Amino acid sequence: MNRLNDAGLRKRVGGLYEYHQAEVIKLPPERRAQTWDEIVQGYSDEGARVEALRCMQCQDPPCVKACPAHLDVPGYCQAIVDGDLKRGLKIILEAFPIPGTCGRICYHPCTDVCLKGVQGTPIEIPRLRRYIADRVDQQTFDFEIPPPTGYKIAVIGSGPAGLSCAYHLRRKGHTVVIFEKDSKPGGTLNTIPDYRLPEEVLQGEIAVLRERLGIEIRLNTPVSGEGCLDRLLEEFDAVFIGIGAVRARKIDTPGAELKGVYHGYDFLRRFDKGERDLLGRRVAIVGGGDVAMDSLRTAIRLCDEVYLLYRRSPMEMPAGREEVFELTEEVLQQEWHHLALELTTQRRKERIRELFNRLELLTMERMAQLEHHLAREIKAETFAKLDRKIGNLTVQFMTHPVRVLGDTRVQGLELVRMELGEPDQSGRREPVPIKGSEFTIDVDTVIFSIGQEIDLRWLGEHHGLKLEKGNRIVTDDQYETSRAWVFAGGDARRGPASMIEALADGRFAAEAIDRKLRTQRPLASKASQEREGVAL
Questions:
Q1: Can you name the residues that pair with 381 across neighbouring β-strands?
Q2: How many C-beta atoms surround the C-beta of residue 252 within 10 A?
C-alpha cells in the first residue's frame, strides 16, 4: 500500500478540516422568476480556490470511480489551487468535451460519494469544472490532433453521446462527420432553458469542435429509410448511433388530442425554436421529472396561474434536488438552498454515525444510496413549503388526470385523488384512484411530462439491429451492435439517461471503434481499403 508523504498528508488534513465551503454566486431569489438570465453565476476566483482546497486528494478517489467518464476530479481541483487553469482544462478535456455545459447540468454522482460528506458538505465538483471552462478560452486550447489516419466515421446525432464520440475519434486522428436532423446541433441539450444552460454556452462549445477540431456537422440532414445503415457503411468505415430518447410516450388520457395539450419535451423543443405563444394564461404540468421541472419553471415565468400535478408523493418524485430547491426559491422569493444543504449535512452525519455504531462498512455504494435517500427526504420537506397556493403556483401531489375537458381546445382538466397501493415493478408503491374524489380545475394548456422513449422508425424495418425492451439497441461490452462496424451509446443504448452517461458512452465507444479499426483493418469497409496510400 502506498503511504502518503508529508505534503500529501498536509493536503488530506487541510481538505478535511481547514476550509469551509465557498459561496457560489447566484441571482437573488426575488429576481429569478422575472428573468431568463442564468441563475447560478459561478465561483469567484477566490471562491473557486477555497472550494478546490477542500479536496482531500484521495489516493483512491471514489469520485473518479463514480463518474461514468472517470474524470480526474482531484487533478483539476489541484490545478485550480495551483492557479494553472489550462492544466485543469486539459485534464477535463481528456474525459469529455463541452465542459462548461456539463459543469452546469451534470447530476454529479461524483459528489454523492465525496468523502468530504462524511464530516461535512461534499465538494461542489461540477461547479469547479464549470469555473475552469468559463475562465479558459477553448478556442485557444491546443487539442494536439495527430496526423490523419485515413479512417472516416459517421456519427448519427449531435447530442452529448454523438458529440463525445466524434470528439474522441477526432482527437485520435480520424475524420468524423455528424449527421443531425435538426437545424441546430446539441440534441436534447437544446431543450434546457437558458436560466440553467445559456444557449451561447452550449453552442459556443460545439463551435469549438467544429472550428478547432474540424468535426463536420451536417445540419438538417436526417439519416433515414430502408438501407440507410448500408449506405453509410459504403462511405464510412464505422457508424456510431448517438440519438436521444426524444419520442413522446403516448398520452392515454382522454382529450389529449385537444389543442393546447403538449408533451413536455416537445413543448420545450418548440419553445427553444422560438414558438413563444404556446402557453395560455392557466397551465397544468403533469409529471415529476426534470422535464416537468423545466416546463414548470418556464410556465411560472410566463403564465398567470400554474399547477404542478403529480400522482405520487414528493418522496417518489424523480426531479433533481437542485431544480426543486431553485423552484422553491423562485416561488417563495427567499433563500432556501443553504438551509436544505444544512439539513442534508446534519442528517448525513447522523446516518453515518448510526452505521459506525452498528459496525457497518461505509462503502461507496452505501454512500450513494444514503445520498439518494437524503435527497428524497429533503425534496419532500422542500415541497412541504409549497403546500398552498403561493404566487401563481399550486402544487398538488397524489393527483392524477382523468380527462382533458374541452371541445376543440383545452378548457379544463378533470382530476382524481390518489393513494399509494402495493409496490410496482420499480419498487415504488403504485398509486390507485380514490373513488368519488374527482374534481376539476380551469386551465387552457396542459403539459404532460411523462417521459420519452427511443424512436427507431428512421431505420426502416430491415435494419438488422438487435433490440431490447424500450427500443434500446443491444451492444456488446465494446459498444458494438449486432451489425459489424455499427456502434451505439447514450440513450440509444441505455434508454433515457443522463448527460454524463452519454458523454461517457461516447468516450468509450470511440476508444472501441479506434481499437477495432487499428487491429482489424483488413475487415474494414471498402471505404478505408480504397485509401491504402494513407498512413495509419
A1: none
A2: 9
How would residue 533 be classed by pLDDT, with cut points 50, 70 and 90? very low
pLDDT, greater one: 178 or 11: 178
For residue 95, the tally of other CB atoms under 10 A from its CB is: 24
For residues 12 and 26, give the distance between their C-alpha atoms in angstroms, rounded to a whole number.
Answer: 30
Radius of gyration over alpha carbons of the chain, in Å? Answer: 24
Give 400's strand partners: 416
Q: What Å distances lie between residue 293 and 75, 275, 285, 309, 392, CA to CA?
A: 34, 19, 9, 11, 15
Q: Which of 148, 243, 145, 95 is nearest to 517 (CA)?
A: 148
DSSP string, 136-159: S-GGG----PPPP-S-EEEEE--S
Q: Is 233 helix (H, G, I), strand (E, B) or coil?
A: helix
Largest CA distance in the chain: 77
In order of 132, 193, 270, 298, 331, the CA distances from 276 in angstroms are 34, 13, 8, 11, 22
Q: 426, exposed or middle or buried, with CB in 10 Å at 0-12, 13-18, 19+? A: exposed
How many whole angstroms separate alpha carbon 188 and alpha carbon 197? 12
Residue position matching grid coordinates 397501493: 421
Q: Among candidates 96, 383, 446, which has minimal Cα distance to 257?
A: 446
Stretch 182-203: mean pLDDT: 97
